Amino acid sequence: MRILIDETQLAAGVAKLAREIDTRYSDRPITVVAVLTGSVVLFADLIRRLSMPQRVGVIQASSYRGGTQAGELVIDAKMLIDVKDRDVLVVDDIFDTGATIAKLRDELTAMGAASVATAVLLRKVREEQHSVRPDFVAFEIPDEFVVGYGLDYLDMYRNLPYIAVLEPEEIAATSAQVG
Ligand SMILES: O=P(O)(O)OC[C@H]1O[C@H](OP(=O)(O)OP(=O)(O)O)[C@H](O)[C@@H]1O
Ligand SMILES: Nc1nc2[nH]cnc2c(=O)[nH]1
């Protein structure tokens, strides 16, 4: 496992993200929405650094079930609080193809949100990517499959306090063990 972003760097990145979001909204109340499951670690750290009044909700988006390549994207909004006429900030761990953020923007807009902005910890720099861009990004990373700080492979590794790149042999060993 190769560490790409260590704990100290992550803390500084989250603090920077929070400052940018605070500057954008000032004291305006927001509805901040965690994209389950990957954003849980970032979300807990980020919302405690934001200064404005917040309503907190969750939505699930899942497309990487069981692997390192995207499959069908499924959004489950059953647990989401009301977003109608609210300024919504969506928080996710990573913007990779951009499909998840693009679809969430559309769905939350269709639910009547007054505005939808998006904040991510990581944006992958890759050729094929959705034209929709996240509004707030802590780190840009190369096009490699990363785990840790909420990000998983086969639902493992989310608890790591850093972001790391899994070596091919670790991917194979984890599949053999868990998959
Ligand atoms: O930009 P994209 O290519 O759409 O990829 C980004 C999405 O992929 C991951 O979710 P995943 O589907 O793995 O579900 P999880 O959050 O439960 O791990 C991640 O948490 C983002 O939501
Ligand atoms: N764990 C993990 N999930 C992702 N979802 C989209 N890209 C990634 C990635 O690089 N790692």
UniProtKB/TrEMBL annotation:
The keyword Nucleus does not apply. The keyword Cell membrane does not apply. InterPro entries: HGPRT, Hxn_phspho_trans, PRTase-like, PRTase_dom. Its main location: cytoplasm. Its EC number is 2.4.2.8. Keywords: Cytoplasm, Glycosyltransferase, Magnesium, Metal-binding, Nucleotide-binding, Purine salvage, Transferase. Residues 8-153 form the Phosphoribosyltransferase domain. Its cofactor is Mg(2+). It catalyses: IMP + diphosphate = hypoxanthine + 5-phospho-alpha-D-ribose 1-diphosphate; GMP + diphosphate = guanine + 5-phospho-alpha-D-ribose 1-diphosphate. NCBIfam families: HGPRTase. Belongs to the purine/pyrimidine phosphoribosyltransferase family. This is Hypoxanthine phosphoribosyltransferase. It comes from Neorhodopirellula lusitana.
